[in-house]
Amino acid sequence: MPAPDEAAPPRTIHPVMPDGWERYRPSVGRLTGFFAELLPHLVGQTFGSGGEVWVAVDGDAVDGLLLLQPGERSATVFAREAAVAEALLAGRGPLGVFSELPLGDRPFERLAILETELPRSDAVPHRFAHPVRLAAPPDREVLLQLLREGLGAVDERWFRPLPPPPERGFVVERDGAIVGTAWVAVPGPVARLHSLVVRPRYRGLGIGRDLWEARARWAEAHGATRLRVEIAEENDASRALARAAGMREIGAIYRTRWV
């Protein structure tokens, strides 16, 4: 007599504690086309700044990962299907959500993912116009204010300690004050550039290019073989910096307002 059909167990969504992350680490890399090498760092950064990590499990397989930053009202979701991403986000919001695929019919902003290999062979040679130095603990409050002015909500726990390993921040000073900052994470062979902010009155003076070059050189000196960055399509200034640095577009992510 044939055995009766057994219904597959339903998808479950549950939180991951820091001491339980290693259980899921081997299986979540397949959920992303571009961030597999950076994913352990992004998860650690989420835990370190007081965020939440959630997984969607279908039977025995992990088919979704959510990194939630309540303090910044933002989230990053990794899934191969929009329905899984939306299940992870259900009941949450308002949030700014980053994902590798559009979420339903909601309007979104497209960010290009750009990359270059190190050492760079096709970058425009650069001569620094301003001294650039590493961010230091006494800079903390000024940097927090500057990043909030340029990027919006920033959870101050991300700066405990400063710099948060394996991150490094760089600053440029003019007229006795910090007027620009930018950050790089080098958790392995792929370095991620992020959080470039220059005060409006000091833009157009080459500060952004100096900060870009300082990060690229630091990343290469510390073992990175590739540089990667995400840039909004309408951010012409940063896209020009990326092109001058020899970067090419390899894909895209999407930023969606989730309410």
Automatic annotation (TrEMBL):
Q: Which SUPFAM superfamilies match?
A: Acyl-CoA N-acyltransferases (Nat)
Q: Which InterPro entries match?
A: Acyl_CoA_acyltransferase (IPR016181), GNAT_dom (IPR000182)
Q: Which Pfam families match?
A: Acetyltransf_1
- Keyword Transferase among record annotations: yes
Domain N-acetyltransferase as annotated: residue spans: 130-259
Is the keyword Chaperone in the record? no
Q: Which UniProt keywords apply?
A: Transferase
GO MF annotation list: acyltransferase activity, transferring groups other than amino-acyl groups
| PANTHER family from the UniProt entry | N-ACETYLTRANSFERASE
Name the record gives this protein: GCN5-related N-acetyltransferase domain protein
- Can you name the source organism? mine drainage metagenome
